[in-house]
Prior knowledge:
Layout: E1 9-11, E2 14-20, E3 24-33, H1 38-55, E4 59-70, H2 72-87, E5 94-98, H3 104-116, E6 121-123
Parallel strand pairs: 3-4, 4-5, 5-6
Antiparallel strand pairs: 1-2, 2-3
Helix pairs in contact: 1-2
Amino acid sequence: MVTPSxxxxxxxxxxxxxxxxxxxxxxxxxxxxxxxxxxxxxxxxVALHAGAIRTGVxxxxxxxxxxxxxxxxxxxxxxxxxxxxxxLGADKYHVHFKTNAGLAWQRRxxxxxxxxxxxVVRLD
Length: 124
């Protein structure tokens, strides 16, 4: 199996920890995604997209259960990421988001991502 060139991100109270299986790349997001972590998230999403294409996975899963805050700049990075996935056409992979029902902002925010890319985003 080809593996993506991804590094886990751990910075202060924020982390992106990934796991690769034969059909998916799963990312556990935790902490606060704010202005200090935007460059880290940006680099990670660029590498993630390249890795997903290279490995041919069919799903990228973001587990946001322990993500307590995401600023608008971080949200825009996800919009850019999803736009790149949409451009893949028939070769695209799907992006699944697992949310925490106790954090209402997650469902509202990620629903806006699903509406931006309904053929790409799944909300669990």
